[in-house]
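Data deposition worksheet. Section B asks for the primary sequence of the deposited chain exactly as it was used as input, without tags or linkers unless they were present during the calculation. Section C holds the resulting structure in token form. Section D is free text for depositor observations; keep each observation to a single sentence. Incomplete worksheets are returned to the depositor.
Section A, Depositor: J.P.
Section B:
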Amino acid sequence: MLPKQYRLKNRIAFKATYKVKNSSHSGGVTLFAGILKKDEAPTKVGFVVSKKVHKRAVKRNRLKRLMRESYRLLLKKGELGNSQKYMSLVFVGTDNALGKKFDEIYSCIKKLLERI
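Section C:
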């Protein structure tokens, strides 16, 4: 599980991240990056899968778990690249990512973090 200091929870923070319109897409996952940081606070991360993607909460939650675990492993390895310059990141799962396995989601997340 992602440590509490890295979680993005506030709805206003999600909206502020979307408003910046700094995004990238890869393999069914979209990454929205917020504004650049001025201090050394940790980057907050949120994971979203809309109800429009799939009707069943089980499917949506599985995709969120896969994305969250991928990010946690990259954080543990220190392979986050330039993504730590931003105050907040939001990963949005789409219907193309629903049937993918962990390795595919992991590579998508890694590619997005390198690209941003």
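Section D:
Residues 57-77 form the longest helix (21 residues).
The mean pLDDT is 93.
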